[in-house]
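User: Show me a protein chain along with its predicted structure.
Assistant: Here is one chain, sequence first, then structure tokens.
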Amino acid sequence: MMGENRARVVALVVAVVVVVVGVAGNVAAAQAAVTAADLQRVAGSLQMYVDALPQMAKIRGYGFQRGQAVPINLTIGMYQKTWKFHRDLPATPVFVYGQCPDSATFPGPTIMARHDVPLFVRWENHLPASHILPWDPTVPTAIPKNGGVPTVVHLHGSAHPPQSDGSAFAWFTAGFAEKGPAWTQATYRYPNVQPPGNLWYHDHALGLTRANLLAGLLGAYVIEKPEVDTPMDLPCDDDDLHLVIADRSFNVDGSLYMNSTGVAPNIHPQWAPEYFGEAITVNGKAWPFLVVHRRRYRLRILNASNARYFNVSLSNGLPIHVVGSDASYLSAPVTVSNLLLSPAEIFDVVVDFSQSPTAEVELLNSAPYPFPTGAAPGPLNGKVMKFVVQPNGPLDPPDNSTVPDHEVPYASVTALPPTTMTRYIVMYEYLTPTGQSTHLYINGLRLEDPVTETPKSGTTELWQVINLTGDNHPLHIHLGMFQAVKMQQLVNLQAFTDCMTAVNDAVKCNVDQHAVGPVVPVPDHEKTWKNVIKVPPGFVTSVVIAFKLVDTNQTYPFDTTAEPGYVYHCHVNATSNATCPSYWVNFFF
């Protein structure tokens, strides 16, 4: 059984800790003397807006036969190479996705899939014998016996069989020399049966997700459905762009910085609950610029940072028209002046630069870090990129795009649907006597504990998500799609927290008597079927989860009951070393 396999994984970690500390420590020793001032100095030395924003190569995830889209097979590898994040920064060693080493990029190529046309991807690991970043072997981690960097790929937001989900335990090293206990196949099948929308793929290896993503193992994925997309007349072709935002810190030699000392080093020598970079990169460039013309642009914005929230706005007050969030369109566009993105969250927006009153527009960030009560962003992390607005040229085609009046009918939950189950999902953070974080659990359980959630394909559930930590958390669920319908503050929070810490039972702790504080409305631009929802601290967030295809109300056309199942987790900690150990919970159908 998987539970027994997971127990063996943890035992393996303990058994080989002495061996691997030296491996992880080699990188850590090289970065041990770096201070926060050093990192700020390096980032501050990089002049903003001197590198043009690149667009990643697009790979078509389907073929054509007799005018019909048909399934194909792709092979995408993971490679180590160097990448120029800035004109004035030395080339940086990175891990990146690509069809070959020369074409691999940070972030990886954008895969353009077609609705209801399966795509088969063989993911190959060509990474070296050791990691380029430090990691902590004292938390549950994929540790191969013979060296190598474990990886596995998760297509975030996709509805697919469990064997293709990228389980943290399905990791493998270069050439499939060693494989985790849940590994079953080299080629993943993505049915692409869900509604059209924006997804992304990224590493998901046990205990190495943060390090592997920081190194560059991430990329965008789009499911297109022409009969839905085309009538909206949204900006397309060269006016349809991805913005993949990720904060990174750099050493003087250009290499990526990751902390080598943990916040509680006597417990976890390297692990820290969050990573905040000093430089803001977009599509692999630090503070880039983009030349735009006076026309509408579609911007698919992904926050691929580990822990940093972005509250973005345009410096000259141009409105942002939100048409989609994560892997779904909205019912109708929503116009906003600013947009809050949690880690792993995607917003699909239109900006009309023909209405720009200025020739230059900065994309700014005002989100505190940690969010929502941390430090305000400074002159470096308060800026993201710049748009340079130029007049339309005589050869530019006319802009016939629109911001549509209506989009899709299935997006919003206007009334609470019938649910088969109500669950309480509680986020805990555990601290040292001096207030340092040591681990975070959902419902007081570790990843390797027995499964507690067993939803059924074709059903809808109501989850009451209770955040007893001090930070906002982006909750992500594999396979299902969900949306928040209510956020209500807890009163007498300390008394409730004390009770929950003692008995770990929301009903016995009278949650209904505490969830009577102010109700914060769910933003209109988040009222659709999402893959990430923001869970504010000290609140109960009511979440409707659909374990089915939301546009057709059908069950999944594959077996959801197979091993290794699926997980849900906080995505700050999903991208942390050993899942912030662990803040992941498994579920089976």
